[in-house]
Amino acid sequence: MLRMAKNGREWRERWAVLHSWNKNRGFIELPRIPTGDELRSMNILVPPDWEGLRVWSGQVSSQYDEQLGRYLEGGETQLFIDFKHPHNAVIFEYVRGLKTMPTRWSDVNFGTVDRASVMPMEEGETAPKTVPQGYTTRIPAIARNAVPDNAHQ
């Protein structure tokens, strides 16, 4: 069963949404796919053989977000709609016209962050471990791209 994430942390981590894809500002909901007749009534050109939207479903893969400096585990079920596919291009303009809904998530909200930078510590320098805004746990990492050992299996 597909579901919406409960909060920004779950959305980033379980759906592995890169910061460059969406900065927690909003989402679009397509509650139902309009029929060919409904699209034609909106002056959208619909081929006579159009049978509806083609959607692919699968498990979200893990990935590393370079911009956030964070490993995103994935694992949820996602739907993928390729609007460049000729069969789905029909509905692209309709979807673009849908209202963007605000997430209203207060956690993991990066707003205007465009780039994160890291400065290496000097030899012998120490600093307390900190947790980035919105995250309450750390994922153990190895030097190899800061990805947990079990992610490479």
Concise structural overview:
Helix content is 16%, strand content 9%. It has three helices and four strands; from the N terminus they run ααββββα.
Report on this model:
The protein has one domain. It has helices at residues 8-14, 36-41, 86-96; strands spanning 56-59, 63-65, 70-72, 77-80. The radius of gyration is 20 Å and the shape is elongated. The strands form two sheets. The protein has a two-stranded antiparallel sheet with strand order 1-4. It has a two-stranded antiparallel sheet with strand order 2-3. By secondary structure, the protein is α+β, with helices and mostly antiparallel strands. It has three helices and four strands. Helix content is 16%, strand content 9%.
Low-confidence runs (pLDDT<50, min 5 residues)?
111-117, 133-153
Give the tally of structural domains.
1
How much helix is in the residues? 10-25%
Order of H and E elements: HHEEEEH
Helix-strand makeup class: alpha+beta
Mean pLDDT over the residues: 76
Record the strand order, biggest sheet: 1-4
Largest sheet: 2 strands, antiparallel
In total, the number of strands is 4
Counting DSSP H or I runs of 4 or more residues, the number of helices is 3
Properties at a glance:
153 residues, alpha+beta, two-stranded antiparallel ribbon, 16% helix
